[in-house]
Amino acid sequence: MVNIVIFGETGAGKSSVTNLMASQKVARVSPDTQRCTLEWTEYTVTFDDGTPYQVFDTVGLEEPRLQTKEYLTAITNAHNLINALEKRGGINLLLFCIRGGRVTATMKSNYRLFFEFLCEKKVPLVLVVTNLEREDPMEAWYTRNRTHLEKYNIYSVGHACITAATTIDDRHRDKYEESRETLCSVVQAHCNDSMEGWTGGQGWFASLISKLMELVIGRPDQTDVIGILTKRCGMNRKVAQQVAQQIRRNEDQS
What we know:
It comes from Rhizopogon vesiculosus. One of its GO terms (molecular function) is GTP binding. It holds the Pfam family MMR_HSR1. By secondary structure, this protein is of the alpha/beta class. It has two domains: about 1-190, P-loop containing nucleotide triphosphate hydrolases (Rossmann fold, 3-Layer(aba) Sandwich), CATH 3.40.50; about 205-254. The chain has helices at about 15-20, 70-85, 105-120, 140-150, 175-190, 205-210, 220-230, 235-254, and strands at about 1-10, 40-45, 50-60, 95-100, 125-130, 160. It has a six-stranded mixed beta sheet, with helices on both faces. The protein is globular.
């Protein structure tokens, strides 16, 4: 089955986008404010042609940088997410949800976290711009903002300018149907079940949490990192110490 990781800030409409693809309510639309970076919920979505997709609705960053405590929690979530993805055959596609508006530093940090750090630039990424029901045509947003995205080094293999709101009035109902067709088409264009899912191979997890340090404010205590790796991630102490030392070396070199 094709695995899609969908990510973005709170309010970007990730759950609504999942429901739009499914043409029914499979994901509960709720804020991520009580959830932590890299925590996820998994759904199965079936397109009209009968093709199933496994969607990992994943919490991104709410600020451009992580506090130390948030980083330690993200280590556990990263470990669980990577284990789940490896068991299911890896990642086939990234869907980066952003709310129609200005391009921000937090968007850039989320892009780096998922496209560069988690997927090492090896997985196709589709940009999904939401909340565009009052944009006419919706594609106009991308035309205006493409250069701003490129200024932040945010690139994609495709994009979908959409509305996923189910409470819009009748004047915009046709835009909802147009959005579903646009979104499903771009997903099908860039991933299918004949594509092999990408996994980072040996050291994927250690590489991710090491790179994630680039977004952390402060310097986590090495003892705390080792404690998380052994108690929550199940590493033996020797391996955990090696990972923590590698994180420290990478930080010293940056």
